[in-house]
TrEMBL record:
Identification of the protein by name: Ca-activated chloride channel family protein
PANTHER family documented for this protein: CALCIUM-ACTIVATED CHLORIDE CHANNEL REGULATOR, ZINC FINGER (C3HC4-TYPE RING FINGER) FAMILY PROTEIN
Keyword terms: Signal
The keyword Signal appears for this protein: yes
The keyword Signal belongs to this UniProt entry's keyword annotation: yes
Domain VWFA positions: 97-276
Signal peptide start-end: 1-20
Length: 470
């Protein structure tokens, strides 16, 4: 006998007992057909069509629900949304208004400082004469190379500025970001793309020091038309801070390895100068049938019946996927019920004007569990299982950083069980997780453990459908 039948039978018996005793009816049982796979159920085979936005802007939006029907009463469902940036008809490089911000605090002494300076030289070698460039280095105080077009003469001056950097002092990240922004603000109306690239080990000791304050600063700069990327230097850099700054600033995050400096800056500058949409944000409008919502793996803020999800600036060919878990309360209906309206808002870089794309997702509601189960979407179910497992992976990465080996291994085991619910589709994820678990179990040093934690964290970001991590 299936779990669903057992639950419904139990609910019916409780209701009859309550009526016989004159007691209030028990609350209805939450239906989890869309979100929980039972051992005895047959695999979903249906593939529902994507609901696509209309229009010809640089961003498109598609979405669909985890099934064509939901169970009446309280239930759960998933939605998957895909934001995609069209490749422009003509590949044209957009001149950038960009600032490189370099941490020179005492914690950067040695190899980290050498790597940061080499990264700055690589950056200078890749900018072009049409780019407007600012350099900033900081410890307790902040030193600025004023914004200028990157002509050959000015690039030579920039190289000399970088050679003169000496480590020392506290880590005033906020002061450096504010100084860089002041340099960029004077030209944001003339340049379609403005960006700050922060190089740091992410250990603030002066100015704003709490993560929440630095995230708020990144959000403010993004609202002023300046994206912020965070690139970590040194094996012990604060990944959560640098990633959070990038997430809130609409930029990219990554780890600067000595042997990959050229590759990282090539990708960062290509992304910036090929941007087709900036200030990208998905807004989810929730109808009365939706009681709560969880956007899995990304930052989301709810205000009344609207949930806002900031995304990164997008170049042609880039995309972002959101997996959304919905808690519902519906009445049986053969007419489609609107369960989610999603709108992506952004600035079209070519026209420098606001634009949007929208989809509305609907499903019917029934009292018949078999109808619900017969119309589940197999692809959305795979996305859901990957997202649920990835939540456990991300938690495992945090436990690795804390040195909690057994807890990390247990969480990786939980992740594997979620992936196993769609084992054929997620076989690659399972194999990758098994390799990471085996390597972590045999890691001999704290440095090796940090590397595995970082690898798992980057894998988590990509599994959640985000393309803003190197």
């Amino acid at each position: 006998m299936s779990r669903t039948v057992l639950l419904l039978s139990a609910a019916a018996l409780l209701a009859l007992g309550a009526l016989a005793l004159g007691l209030p009816k028990p609350p209805p049982v939450l239906d989890t057909t869309h979100t929980v796979a039972t051992p005895d159920e047959e695999a979903a085979t249906e593939v529902l069509p994507w609901v696509a936005s209309s229009g010809w802007g640089p961003l498109t939006l598609e979405g669909k629900l985890s099934g064509a029907w939901v169970q009446s009463g309280p239930s759960e469902a998933f939605a998957v949304l895909e934001v995609k940036a069209r490749e422009p008809k003509e590949q044209r490089r957009v001149p950038a208004n960009v600032a490189l911000v370099i941490d020179r605090s005492g914690s950067m002494r040695g190899q980290k400082m050498d790597d940061a300076k080499q990264a700055a030289r690589e950056f200078i070698s890749q900018v072009r004469p049409e780019d407007r460039v600012t350099l900033v280095h900081y410890g307790t105080d902040v030193t600025v190379f004023p914004a200028t077009l990157a002509t050959e003469y000015e690039r030579e001056r920039m190289y000399a500025f970088v050679e003169g950097i000496e480590d020392g002092g506290s880590t005033n990240i906020s002061g450096a970001l504010e100084a860089a922004a002041e340099q960029l603000k004077g030209a944001t109306e003339f340049f379609k793309v403005s960006r700050i690239i922060l190089l740091s080990d992410g250990q603030p000791t002066a100015g704003l020091q709490r993560e929440e304050e630095l995230f708020a600063l990144a959000r403010t700069l993004r609202g002023q038309g300046i994206a912020v990327s965070g690139l970590g230097v040194g094996a012990d850099f604060n990944e959560n801070l640098m990633q959070g700054i990038a997430d809130q600033g609409g930029g990219f995050s990554g780890f600067l390895r000595s042997e990959q400096l050229a590759e990282v800056f090539t990708r960062e500058l290509e992304q910036a100068t090929r941007t087709v949409a900036r200030a990208v944000e998905v807004r989810l409008t929730l109808p009365p049938a939706v009681h709560s919502v969880e956007v899995m793996g990304v930052t989301a803020v709810r205000e009344g019946n609207e949930v806002r999800v900031p995304l990164y600036d997008m170049a042609g060919g880039q995309s972002a996927r959101l997996v959304v878990k919905l808690s519902l309360e519906t009445e049986a209906s053969d007419d489609p019920l609107e369960l989610l309206v999603a709108t992506v808002h952004y600035i079209n870089v070519e026209t420098d004007r606001p634009a949007e794309a929208q989809v509305a997702l609907t499903a019917k509601s029934t009292e018949k569990p078999k109808v619900v189960r017969a119309h589940l979407d197999k692809d959305v179910r795979v996305h859901a299982h990957r997202a649920l497992g990835t939540q456990q992976m991300r938690a495992a990465a945090e436990e690795m950083k804390r040195g909690n080996r057994q807890s990390a291994l247990s969480l990786m085991g939980s992740a594997r069980r979620f992936f196993g619910a769609s084992a054929s589709a997620l076989s690659g994820d399972i194999e990758d997780l098994d390799r990471t678990r085996d390597a972590y179990e045999h890691a001999q040093s704290a440095s090796e453990q940090r590397d595995h934690a970082r690898s798992l964290q980057i894998k988590s970001i990509k599994n959640f459908g985000q393309e803003n991590a190197y």
